[in-house]
Design brief:
Elements lengths: L1 H15 L12 E3 L2 E7 L2 E4 L5 E3 L5 E2 L4 E4 L4 E6 L4 E5 L4 E10 L6 E17 L7 E6 L2 E5 L3 E10 L2 E10 L2 E7 L2 E7 L3 E4 L4 E3 L3 H14 L21
Parallel strand pairs: 10-11
Antiparallel strand pairs: 1-9, 2-5, 2-7, 3-4, 3-6, 6-9, 7-8, 8-10, 9-10, 10-13, 11-12, 12-15, 13-14, 14-17, 15-16, 17-18
């Protein structure tokens, strides 16, 4: 029953973000991959065949790989080419369910699905094209991303139950889940969060913005300037 409920929520989110699930059957698609940019602490990845390996910088990950981080650890990941960057927090399990490229152009479409089973991720997704889609699956709900900075948290309550929170840092996140037998859908804008089963609330996202900024400054380092000109982290541009 839980699988059916999640599937129902997932299909609703696809409709809300305006992308047909039939696009997966279109020709001209090629497999994407994810690239590990940094690892702090301990992390492993498990292939669909069951082989487990330490996660190291420049490891290339494929569809079906499962990433697991240890305590006091985190991982920076470029996902599906340059379409997004994700920070995987400590004590987190994330599966790369789908990564596809549409067409041959560098700016072509991307089809991405991340499955957050437990823990926390913070990410930045470039504004996706009309033929693209980007989703975050959880044990209790799914979020559709259309170009935004976001956070998703999954906490185990025991007995197979979870508390799931979706947060928009900038941009728009469309989240959907089955609550008491009914599908609930929330559209979150910057500084809003939804814990499934509750109401949308305003939250402080400054610290999440700092995590995003730190990750992007690492993944896209600032080139050194002329002698005597200071360099370093640059302020975030105004959203809008």
């Amino acid at each position: 029953m839980k699988r059916l409920q999640i599937a129902a929520a997932y299909l609703l989110v696809l409709a809300l973000v305006g992308v047909s699930s039939l696009k997966s059957a279109e020709p001209g698609k090629s497999p994407g991959h994810a690239l590990v940019r940094t690892v702090k602490g301990t992390a492993t990845y498990t292939t669909p065949g069951g082989a487990s390996n330490p996660l190291t910088v420049n490891t290339e990950l494929s569809v079906g790989d499962k990433i697991t981080t240890g305590p006091d650890s985190f991982v920076y990941l470029s996902v599906n080419g340059l379409s997004s960057a994700v920070r995987i927090a400590s004590d987190t399990t994330l599966v790369l369910d789908k990564m596809e490229r549409i067409g041959t152009s560098r700016e072509g479409g991307r089809d991405t699905m991340l499955n957050l089973r437990i823990g926390s991720i913070v990410g930045q997704v470039r504004k996706v094209s009309a033929e693209s889609r980007y989703e975050i699956m959880t044990p209790h709900g799914v979020a559709g991303i259309r170009g935004t900075d976001f956070a998703v948290d999954v906490v185990s309550d025991g007995n197979g139950q979870y508390t799931v929170t979706f947060t928009s840092i900038t941009g728009t996140v469309v989240a959907s889940a089955v609550v008491n037998g009914n599908i609930e859908t929330k559209t979150l804008t910057a500084g809003e969060a939804w814990t499934v089963g509750g109401d949308v609330r305003t939250v402080k996202v400054d610290w999440l913005e700092d995590l995003i900024l730190g990750m992007m400054n690492f993944i896209n380092p600032i080139p050194p300037g002329p002698p005597g000109v200071p360099t370093g982290p640059q302020p975030r541009p105004p959203s809008g």
